[in-house]
Amino acid sequence: MRHCVSTALSLIACLSLVACEKSGSEGGAPPAPSIAPATTVPSGKTAEVAPSAAPSPSASAALPAEPPGLVGTWEGKYDAKKGEVEMPPKVKDKVRTKDDGKVAVGSGTLTLTIGPDGELKGKTSGALGAAALSGKVEGDEVRATFFPEDALSKEAMFGIVQGKRKDDKIVGRIRVASGDASIVREAEIELKKKD
């Protein structure tokens, strides 16, 4: 009987250890060790709690630095042309060879507004269609998505706008494609700050 009880207890102990190992490895990272050393408080005394040296979450979540000189509204024009898509050697691109380059080419305008937090909002109109711009500024780099106002339209174009501040301008490029990627267009942009 003692042998059965001791075997059962050993089996339970092994299963407990395996369960602990699995929960530590499958449930994510093991609990972080305590940073503060344990202290012993003599009986009859209460421990004094020192104020924490760690910054509060609100103090540590500092706002990103304001993009100097970029805050404000920028405007410019573009002239869209047929874009190139680089394909691997020996791959024939039958879909884009049908694009005669006559659709979604020509001029248009682009306006974007950069806030103090680096958030970017804007819009375009013209040959590439009416679209909304949304993105972020990091340093002198400007990046935004190009999303059509009517995403279900057959002529809708989707893509990106990238640019960089050079002196008193933002110089960059629009690169977009139709929903089925059969049409690719690109355009150089040069934006000036609106007074």
Quote the beta fraction: 35-45%
The N- to C-terminal Cα distance equals 94 Å
Strand order of the largest sheet: 1-2-3-4-5-6-7-8
Radius of gyration: 30 Å
Q: Which descriptor suits the 3D outline?
A: elongated
Model description:
The protein has 195 residues and is an alpha+beta fold. The chain is built from 3 helices and 8 strands, in the order H-H-E-H-E-E-E-E-E-E-E. It has helices spanning 2-26, 57-60, 94-97, and strands at residues 72-82, 106-114, 119-126, 131-138, 141-148, 157-166, 169-178, 184-193. It has an 8-stranded antiparallel barrel. A hairpin with an 8-residue loop joins strand 5 (141-148) and strand 6. It is elongated and about 45 Å long.
What's the arrangement of secondary structure elements?
Elements: H1 2-26, H2 57-60, E1 72-82, H3 94-97, E2 106-114, E3 119-126, E4 131-138, E5 141-148, E6 157-166, E7 169-178, E8 184-193
Antiparallel strand pairs: 1-2, 1-8, 2-3, 3-4, 4-5, 5-6, 6-7, 7-8
Write out key terms for the chains shown.
8-stranded antiparallel beta barrel; 3 helices; single chain; alpha+beta; disordered N terminus; elongated; about 40% strand
Write a compact overview of the structure shown:
The chain is of the alpha+beta class. The chain contains 3 helices and 8 strands. It has helices spanning 2-26, 57-60, 94-97, and strands spanning 72-82, 106-114, 119-126, 131-138, 141-148, 157-166, 169-178, 184-193.
